[in-house]
Write a structure and sequence with these properties.
This protein has 317 residues and is α/β, with parallel strands linked by helices. The protein is built from 6 helices and 17 strands. The chain folds into 2 domains: 174 residues, 3-Layer(bba) Sandwich (FAD/NAD(P)-binding domain); 119 residues, FAD/NAD(P)-binding domain (3-Layer(bba) Sandwich), CATH 3.50.50.60. Helix 1 links the parallel strand 1 and strand 2. Helix 1 packs parallel to helix 2 and helix 1 runs parallel beside helix 6. It is elongated and about 65 Å long. The termini are far apart. The mean pLDDT is 92.
Length: 317
């Protein structure tokens, strides 16, 4: 593998990276996908009900379908973590992994998504995808008529609570402070919802359940512990774009997102990016997949150089 020169190395195995791989391999580009896992956040979602073509599908199953399709068209896979990218002598790039592998690439696509912030409490990891979610938009409809808990105090948590108030029977919003950091209009909407109960000055200490979430234990600032029963816990304390290792190579905004053009180009010729790790507004699997397709096609265009490309469509004369 280290002796090969790949046309495209894709970093990330979620919807954007895997879709990009489908498009690059269909254009006969030698493609390697490097990722620690397959699916990313999507694989942790119990049921996906908003991806076109599937009324309901397990996130891991959908991720595996992405991978199988990419592999069928020729993509290779390396399950590793990338720690550095360097511009190679002449053209192309050198990709270095945590184990010391060095892989040569003519172009790169960055599609490794965002990492949700964790509560780091007992039960969270074990019940992720089994009632613990990091995306109310994705998983909220699964809790219609049920009791849910949102943890957080920023716009993401307020958005989640307001959205879930229209779906769930009861919503608890646990916030560690005595006032919210989010926008006033969102705060007012949440406070106006009759089925939302706000619990201030409290921290989550445990998520309870065996095979599924059954409840949550929180501790108030005076040291008292309380338990809530619920079927779903939405952790909305933000996401992290782990892009510090790319600073100096490509442009990154104040939110640490990779800046791209409308065609998924970064500030570095030959490096493209797609999906949640970029500045796109909506962080959804279907959007990430579409952005991955764009990045794959743009990488192909870049590698073609001055050769004319056939457009996807031509206007009728």
């Amino acid at each position: 593998m280290e002796d090969k020169v790949y046309d495209v190395v894709i970093i990330g195995g979620g919807p954007s990276g895997l879709t990009a791989a489908i498009y690059t391999t269909r254009r006969s580009l030698k493609t390697l996908v490097i990722s620690k896992d397959i699916g990313g956040q999507l694989s942790l979602t119990d049921d996906v009900e908003n991806y076109p073509g599937f009324e309901s599908i397990e996130g891991l199953t959908l991720s595996q379908k992405f991978q199988q399709q990419a592999a069928k068209t020729g993509a290779e896979f390396l399950f590793e973590e990338v720690v550095n990218i360097e511009k190679a002598n002449g053209n192309g790039f050198l990709v270095k992994t945590v184990s010391g592998k060095e892989i040569k690439a003519k172009s790169l696509i960055l599609g490794f998504g965002l990492t949700p912030r964790n509560l780091e409490v007992p039960g969270e990891k074990e019940l992720t995808g089994k009632g613990v979610s990091y995306c109310a938009t994705c998983d909220g409809p699964l809790y219609r008529g049920k009791t849910t808990i949102v943890v957080g105090g920023g716009n993401a948590a307020l958005d989640a609570a307001e959205y879930l108030s229209k779906v769930a029977k009861q919503v608890y919003l646990i916030h560690r402070r005595d006032e919210f950091r989010g926008e006033k209009v969102l705060v007012d909407q949440v406070k106006a919802a009759e089925n939302v109960k706000i619990i201030y000055n409290s921290n989550t200490v445990e998520i309870k359940g065996t095979d599924r979430v059954e409840g949550l234990v929180y501790k108030t600032n005076d040291g008292q512990e309380h338990e809530l029963q619920a079927e779903g816990v939405f952790v909305e304390i933000g996401h992290i774009a782990k892009t510090a290792w790319l600073e100096g190579l490509i442009d990154i905004n104040e939110r640490k997102e990779i800046m791209i053009s409308a065609d998924c180009e970064t500030s570095q010729p030959g490096i493209f990016a797609a999906g949640d790790v970029t500045q796109i507004t909506y962080k959804q699997a279907v959007i990430s997949a579409g952005e991955g397709a764009k990045a794959g096609l743009q990488a192909y265009k870049y590698l073609q150089g001055d050769k004319p490309l056939t457009p996807d469509w031509t206007p009728k004369k």
